[in-house]
Amino acid sequence: MSVFDIFKQLESRNTEPSGAVEYIICGLGNPGTQYENTRHNIGFMTVDTLCEKYKLSCKKLKFKSLTCDAVIGGNTMLQSRNQERGTDAAQQSFGGNTMLQSRNQERGTDAAQQSFGGNTMLQSRNQERGTDAAQQSFGGNTTLQSRNQERGTDAAQQSFGGNTTLQSRNQERGTDAAQQSFGGGKRCLIMKPTTFMNNSGEAVTEAMNFYKIPPERTIIVFDDISLEPGKLRIRRKGSDGGHNGIKSIIYLSGSDAFPRIKMGVGAKPNPDYKLADWVLGHFKKEDGEKLEQCFQNAVACLELIVQGKIDEAMNKYNS
Question: Which domains are assigned to the chain?
Answer without folding.
Answer: 23-74+185-317 (3.40.50.1470), 83-181 (no CATH)
